[in-house]
Amino acid sequence: MPKKNTEFGLDLIDSNDKALSVLVGYASGATDDIDRLFDGYLLNDTNYQFYSILNDTEKENKLTINGKALPFDDADIIPLGYQAPAQGQFTIALNTVDGLFAYSDQNTYFRRY
Fold this sequence. Notes:
Helices cover about 5% and strands about 40% of the residues. It contains one helix and seven strands; from the N terminus they run E-E-E-E-E-E-E-H. Strands 1, 2, 3, 4, 5, 6 and 7 form a seven-stranded mixed beta sheet that branches.
């Protein structure tokens, strides 16, 4: 696996084309826990939210930037969450890729649990 940073970004898009974004990046120096320099908490206090979930022993952390440890593990699972003000149709779209995700045949799968 390459030692350079690699990332992908996702958008949650509502029927009015309003989008919220989440970035998941694999970086040298990051861990799979909360890292002050690599993770960004959800700061959106509204009723329309999109985030990745990182559970630790104390609480469920909602992140809009999720820094993960290298090397990339193709069995990695990134739980996602959302909150919407009303029922409707939403789309999750890949909005950006870099590193491994841009320059290889690495597949990315979305699975509803």
